[in-house]
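A brief tutorial aside. Many learners find it easier to grasp structure tokens once they have seen a single protein encoded end to end. The record that follows does exactly this for Vacuolar cation/proton exchanger 3-like. Read the sequence first, then the structure, and try to relate runs of similar tokens to stretches of the chain.
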Amino acid sequence: MGSTEEKTNYLSDEEIPLKSSPVAKNVLHSFDCETAAVRSSPDTRWWKTNNIRIRPLRSAYIVLVRAKINVLLPFGPLAILLHYLTGKHGWVFFFTLLGITPLAERLGYATEQLAFYTGPTVGGLLNATFGNATEMIISIYALKSGMIRVVQQSLLGSILSNMLLVLGCAFFTGGIIHHKKVQVFNKGAAVVNSGLLLMAVMGTTFPAVLHFTHTELHSGESALSLSRFSSCIMLIAYASYLFFQLKSQHNLYGPLDEEVDGEVEDDSEIFAWEAIGWLAILTVWVSILSGYLVDAIQIPFCVVVGWCMGKPMDLNFKLFETATLFITVLVVAFMLQV
């Protein structure tokens, strides 16, 4: 241990030579030379080169092998082989569906890894965007093939699943895991999101009301024009929401201060450039499999894309689907206000 005076003398004996004596300069010079020699040694260069070679292999193992759901990945290439060798559309549809399932999960994983480097707000936005990439790609292929009702039903099912099943599971599992404390969320952000949901439902309700009330003589053309106009307005509102979330009022979407009971945040398992690369690769592979899936068989964006393709994709979701969506949004908005 030693006394305070001994520690002071020991520190002063180290500091004085390092500041002024010629011996200290020689020592520092020799230390720099040794450090440079170590950095440029063949062993160090070999380690760096070997690390560069190992990183992609490790990243591929983490993304493509380690998760248990990846056992379904071979069904994707198998579906392509069945498409060209047998032509049995039922098996092609089933195997393609199995092959796309792990790709969608891995897209979410790569997005979560990228969120470690972008922050919670941008990370959540990326997760919402790439989380729906699979459904959007499939919808575009189905829209290209003229399957309007398939696109409408799949998008409606996705909305209901995210708003009811996902939100309900979050409340349920959060109550089980954190049963000793009250769960909190950002009420201001919830109010903004609820307003956007109500505006989106309004955009899908007007075409259905126009169609079933026979307000116009040519209801089909009028509903289609109204759907395209509403879709453009919703896309503009979404762009404004992104500016509101990321720039003007980004403090509103900051993480809430919560008590953490001995929990340690996980570190990222792959680098940011690796996550971006895997997002691109997985998106391309999903796009390839989606073509075979549609051959065997999100809303405003699909309407605008269908408009560009010359397909009459509209927001007329029929009376039952529109009423279901409207009631769902009201229930979710009410739950978030409590």
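Self-check: The chain has a mean pLDDT of 73. If you spotted this yourself, you are ready for the next section.
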